[in-house]
Design goal:
37 strands, globular, alpha+beta, Immunoglobulin-like, 3 domains
């Protein structure tokens, strides 16, 4: 194997002008793919020596191209081929003890063999890299992406060779106040290549994207559109739903776009019957296969209507953290374990916090009949007045909707969590709400608000964003961060909106196996009593349409340090970090049986 000696990583320096990721390839797992998962060599670069010179000036492309080896022969500190290995996909924090708290740059390298198919164009696809990623193939800069929870891809036909190749990634998870999320957060900042890496072979002209769902206004109509990756007119597109005996054939317009309608009476997707139909989208010998459910979701006063029937959202919040090993969950098996707990709890709904989760999570939830709230990490104190921060947030929202718009399980797009009130924040979030509706007006919009104030034993929920959301959702922690469980039994609520209400978070910490009186904090008994009292209180809220307590499972957080109790875990899970159910799990399970 050809050795790759890196002189200060200068062979993989950035161009003067960055190249953003290209439009996403929809339904990536239905394409001609090769997994590049596995063992990757890595180099830790805490001073970013591969990106900057010793004066912290950005290295430019070609800086070393005309240098003879002797000019830099004494500077051979880096060698990928003799460097240690990290598993991809996964986070680096839980693979290597010395990287547990590490935030900064790590360079990854993977050798691969490529044989170009006839009339095929190679692409590279990353499910997610946290937080910044710069991609190089065979030492040449390909492009970059910012945002730790959404996918990106590049056409690499100009970079890949027949036979042996190698790919290098600069990843950096350093937190910054102008990022999304900002520098202050309450979950672990897992670094690295955290989701699948795929080599994708596609025709020169291929189906880039599509949308297929029930018409929002007209009953008995399935509508949609298909878009090619090139603006070519007159290309025949076929959309077929065999089980419904429906076939559409049409020609693209000058933008490579075609829309369609079909009269049909499909069985509606629901939690009780998560019916999915095989759908084939074909053009010029390429067929993209999907499974799509058809359902309606809307509000009527204080009710949420699924398929025109009132539904109560029996939910739980969930972080993308593996059931037993406590790193980033990325595989089907790890996702399935988490969702099986959700089903065992009696849920029909899950809030995926506080960022878009991996595609396996969304698709498995859909198969299992679990409705989804999907969220972007506009969390706490974002830089509301920074235009670049807004563009970052909007791009993540766009990428989330783009990837998952055909998933019937998703009923709510969430644009924020626990953001402080203010004029700049209101403008920022209104723009996000408007953008979400412009991309997809068939789902509900919400955000997790905060309780505004308390007076005369009454909690007031009031937020200027109420005008721009379909559901009034808020987080409250009475009995944990203020008051006692007993206070829940007498607390009243004032929520002056004729819209459905979801209590999007509540709960308290308990160390699994720590027992005592119900008034002793951190015990399972305290958490159990808090759940009983809170659920009694929530039953009295007029217009309550659902809940998603915080949280399914204990998860890593650098804010949670209490020795012997937290030990770097947020202990609000009703399942421990070792997969053991706490007493509150069964309280919630019993309550859901009454709904």
């Amino acid at each position: 194997m050809k050795k790759t000696i890196i002189y200060l990583l200068a062979s993989f320096i950035l161009c003067s002008v960055s190249r953003a990721s290209e439009p996403l390839i929809a339904n990536i797992y239905a394409r001609d793919i090769t997994f590049l998962n596995g063992q990757w060599n890595y180099i830790v670069d805490p001073f970013d020596n591969g990106l900057y010179d010793n004066k912290m000036q950005r290295l430019e492309k070609g800086f070393f191209e005309n240098r003879k080896p002797r000019d830099v022969s004494e500077r051979i500190e880096y060698n990928f081929d003799t460097s240690p290995l990290l598993k991809v996909p996964s986070d680096w924090n839980t693979q290597e003890e010395k990287l547990f708290f590490y935030e900064g740059t790590i360079w990854y390298k993977k050798d691969f063999t490529y044989t170009r198919g006839k009339n095929k164009v190679p692409h590279i696809y990353f499910g997610a890299v946290n937080y910044e990623a710069q991609v190089y193939v065979n030492g040449k800069y390909v492009g970059e992406h910012k945002g730790g929870y959404t996918p990106f891809n590049f056409n690499i036909s100009d970079f890949v060779n027949e036979g042996r190749n190698f790919i290098v990634l600069r990843t950096n998870n350093a937190r910054h106040k102008d990022n999304v999320p900002t520098s202050n957060m309450d979950w672990w900042n897992f670094g690295g290549i955290t989701r699948d890496v795929l080599l994708v072979d596609l025709p020169a002209v291929f189906v880039q994207d599509y949308s297929i769902q029930l018409d929002k206004e007209k009953k008995g109509i399935i509508k949609g559109w298909v878009k090619l990756n090139q603006s070519l007119s007159g290309q025949e597109i076929t959309v077929e739903i065999p089980e419904l005996s429906k076939v559409f054939k049409g020609l693209t317009d000058d933008n490579g776009f075609v829309s369609f309608e079909m009269k049909a009476q499909p069985t509606y997707w629901s939690s009780k019957d998560p019916k999915l139909y095989d759908v084939d989208i074909a053009q010029n010998g390429e067929t993209v296969k999907d499974k799509i459910g058809f359902r309606t979701i809307k509000t009527e006063g204080k009710k949420i209507l699924l398929n025109d029937e009132e539904v109560f959202l029996k939910g739980i919040c969930l972080h993308e953290e593996a059931a037993y090993r406590n790193g980033r969950a990325w595989s089907k098996d790890e996702v399935r374990t988490l969702l099986m707990w959700v089903k065992e709890l009696g849920c029909n709904f899950v809030r995926l916090t506080h960022y878009p989760h991996n595609e396996y999570m969304v698709r498995l939830a859909e198969e299992m009949g679990i409705m989804i709230w999907s969220e972007i990490p506009v969390y706490w104190t974002i830089s509301w007045d920074n235009p670049e921060t807004y563009q970052n947030a909007e791009k993540q929202l766009d990428e989330m909707i783009y990837r998952d718009k055909n998933r019937s399980a998703i009923i709510v797009w969430s644009i924020a969590n626990e953001t402080p009130h203010g004029e700049s924040r209101d403008k920022f979030l209104k723009k996000l709400s408007d953008f979400a509706r412009s991309k997809d007006d068939t789902r509900l919009i919400s955000m997790a608000m905060e309780v505004s104030k308390v007076s005369d034993n009454t909690n007031l929920v009031q937020d200027n964003m109420s005008e721009y959301v379909d559901i009034i959702s808020f987080n409250q922690y009475l009995g944990w961060y203020n008051g006692t469980p007993e206070d829940c039994r007498t607390r009243k609520w004032e929520i002056p909106y004729d819209k459905p209400i979801i209590v999007s978070e509540f709960g308290g910490d308990a160390l699994q196996g720590y027992h005592g009186e119900s008034n002793v904090r951190w015990t399972e008994e305290y958490q159990e009593e808090l759940y009983k009292a809170t659920l009694e209180m929530l039953n009295k809220i007029d217009g309550l349409a659902g809940i998603s307590p915080w949280v399914l499972k204990d998860f890593y957080s650098p804010r949670r340090q209490l020795p012997g109790i937290q030990d770097w875990f947020n202990r609000k899970g009703i399942v421990s970090d070792q997969g053991i159910k706490k007493k509150a799990f069964f309280v919630l399970q019993d309550w859901f049986k009454t709904k």
